[in-house]
Amino acid sequence: MNARALISLIIPCYNEQAVIELCHRRVAAAVDPIRDYDFEIIYINDGSRDETLRLLEGIAQSDKRTRIVNLSRNFGKEAALTAGLDNAKGDAAIILDADLQDPPELIPKLIHAWKDRDADVVYGQRTSRLGETWFKKFSASAFYRLINRISGRVDIPYNTGDFRLMNRRALDALKDLREQHRFMKGLFAWIGYKQIAFPYVREPRAGGRTKWDYLSLWNLSLEGITGFSMTPLRLASIFGFIISAFAFIFGCYILLHTLVAGSDVPGYPSLMVMVTFLSGIQLLTIGILGEYIGRIFNETKKRPLYFIDKIIEHNT
Ligand code: UDP
Ligand code: MG
């Protein structure tokens, strides 16, 4: 009888031919000495256009703990992660990046923290961000301050990524959240349960290139804010209130001024200022409405989050 708990390692890969084999070697080396648990290693190939799938097939043949979930196209990291979590059979799952930014050597420590402190989730928290520009660090910290102010009860921890361990009940909770717009850090926090931080040093990529540029980071922030806060929608009424109050006072002033000093038909500049200012605010609030309506549109379609092309397992 095998009573050992099973832990699923979940590794999304998109165009990772430069690092994938090194990744597997390091993951295998990290889990090989662990005797108290069994492991399954799930690679999700997120529609890579390079040799990643072929290399993964080789890995699956050489290591019978591995399973490859090949998606039908590139769905993005969030969907790839979800595919991995859906396919995990373990009593707990650990999420890792293929580029080795989350060092696999920490796996035993994560498991230890999980068991030791009886947590449902152990999330990696970066103590430093090696290889990142000051602008990225600054904008990231500003973003977390903002989103935590406006997202109400959900506390999205600062400096965390997807690197984490989740037990079965946290996994099942997360699996119930099927929204299209998946701001994973927010979803992870939203489920609640006992979550503890695990400080670690995030390393630079082991090879290959990041798939994030500033535009996609901007989009990610929008996902986070619109997915977890209605505050921007309220901004329109706040702006409207402030501006009407201002307009009312201004109107009284003009009335008094005309009564006392007569009209001298000035006011073209002030008129222009008001018109352009107000149209700016109107466009901004329509844009905010659009962000939410677009998301409602996407959610109402209720499309599946991904399609699986095939699952490859070690054949004996
Ligand atoms: N990834 C993915 N699908 C994508 C983009 C990225 O599965 O569309 C994977 C990628 O292979 C890597 C992880 O997500 O394992 C993190 O990606 P990346 O290193 O580019 O992001 P960063 O670490 O720079 O945030
Ligand atoms: Mg990376």
Notes on the protein architecture:
Strand 1 (5-13), helix 1 and strand 2 form a beta-alpha-beta unit. It contains ten helices and eight strands. The longest helix has 33 residues, at 268-300. It has an eight-stranded mixed beta sheet with strand order 7-5-6-4-1-2-3-8, with helices on both faces. By secondary structure, the protein is α/β, with parallel strands linked by helices. The chain has two domains: 5-211 and 305-313, Alpha-Beta Complex (Spore Coat Polysaccharide Biosynthesis Protein SpsA, Chain A); 231-301. Helix 9 (231-261) runs antiparallel to helix 10 (268-300). The protein binds uridine-5'-diphosphate and magnesium ion. Residues 12-14, 16, 46, 74, 76-77, 80, 97-99, 101, 210-212 line the site of uridine-5'-diphosphate.
List the helices and strands and how they pair.
Elements lengths: L4 E9 L6 H12 L5 E9 L6 H11 L3 E6 L5 H11 L4 E4 L11 H10 L4 E9 L4 H17 L9 E8 H8 L8 H7 L4 E8 L11 H15 L2 H31 L6 H33 L7 E6 L3
Parallel strand pairs: 1-2, 1-4, 2-3, 5-7
Antiparallel strand pairs: 3-8, 4-6, 5-6
Helix pairs in contact: 9-10
